[in-house]
Design goal:
By secondary structure, this protein is an alpha+beta fold. 21% of the residues lie in helices and 31% in strands. The protein folds into two domains: 66 residues, no CATH class; 206 residues. Strands 2, 5, 7, 8, 9, 12, 13, 15 and 17 form a nine-stranded antiparallel β-sheet that branches. It has a four-stranded antiparallel β-sheet with strand order 6-14-10-11, with no helix packed on it. Strands 1-18-16 form a three-stranded antiparallel β-sheet, with no helix packed on it. Strand 8 and strand 9 form a beta hairpin.
Length: 290
């Protein structure tokens, strides 16, 4: 009954208003009060601050600074095997597998449209039909910067306005088309092995989604899908190396990685609920092994 009430509340609450208000509070420089809130958050979620570059709550001017904290040097090691890709975030696997008939698995018995996830254009989705995906959930305790699983050149960024349902496992099992209805930023990269999409999904109390090339993307005043294409070469092209930071969340959410057909073989021993760590082995590149 409690779980059912939580889902009903997700539909009834003014999620955008709550999220934007909390976003303003998280950005406030409130001195000792900010420090107290951060200390309580660290305690509540048992956050290992030994991994952070700045280890004390008082080192952070705002809650957002703390939430998007930088890791200490050496806290993560990027897998340097040229034949593999690495996990882009700390988190836990929600679902992963092959994209069948243009559908991705959301939860047992629930799927959603690849085309809708990427902004509603069949041409955008075409590169990924028959490919593979991973949906990785970031809990409040996790490191909230997103890094590149492999080297790629940015082809297109798409901002898709939408709802702000929570993206925790309970909601994923009960809200249809969750990841294709929430506000999100899609970054499509061209790599030496095929196309790759990184989908940064917003959620309740996610105050902001940023990328390293365009700064804050969400929240946005626009109610329309926004697309920005980028050159493949020249001074205005954007190429990020494996392990480079590509974006961040201010308060937690989900990253969905999507790969072209015949591009990767996901770790067969990785299952739903398994913990991921930035930089660790994620999948093998098929073309690199031929």
């Amino acid at each position: 009954m409690l779980d059912k009430l939580k889902i009903i509340a997700q539909y009834l609450l003014p999620k955008h208003a709550i999220s934007r208000l909390l976003g303003k509070l998280a950005a406030a420089e409130a001195g000792w009060l900010t420090t107290v809130v951060i200390r309580q958050f660290i305690k509540a979620y048992e956050i290992d601050m030994s991994e952070a570059k700045l280890k004390n709550a008082a080192d952070y001017a705002t809650f957002n600074d703390f939430f998007t904290r930088e890791l200490a040097e050496g806290a993560r090691t990027i897998d340097n095997d040229a034949n593999s890709i690495c996990y882009p975030v700390d988190g836990a696997i929600s679902q992963q597998g092959k994209i069948e008939s243009g559908k991705l698995i959301q939860a047992k018995g629930i799927d959603y449209s690849l085309e809708a996830l990427l902004g509603g254009e069949s041409q955008t989705a075409a590169d990924f039909l028959g490919g593979h995906f991973s949906c990785i959930y970031l809990a409040p305790k996790d490191y909230h910067r997103i890094h590149m699983p492999m080297t790629g050149t940015l082809r297109e960024m798409i901002f898709i306005p939408g709802d702000l349902f929570s993206v925790n496992p309970l909601t994923a099992k009960n809200v249809p088309n969750l990841f294709a209805r929430n506000e999100r930023v899609v970054a499509i990269f061209d790599t030496d092995y095929g196309a790759m999409a990184m989908v940064l999904v917003g959620a309740t109390v996610v105050a902001s989604i940023e990328t390293v090339w365009a700064s804050t993307i969400a929240p946005s005043v626009t109610k329309e899908i926004y697309r920005q294409r980028y050159p493949s070469e020249g001074v205005d092209s954007i190429t990020l190396q494996k392990g480079d930071e590509m974006g961040r969340f201010k308060l937690g959410s989900t990253v969905i990685c999507v790969f072209a057909a015949d591009m990767v073989r996901l770790n067969p021993n990785a299952n739903s609920g398994d913990v991921t760590r930035l930089g660790e082995h994620y999948a093998d590149l098929l073309a690199a092994q031929t």
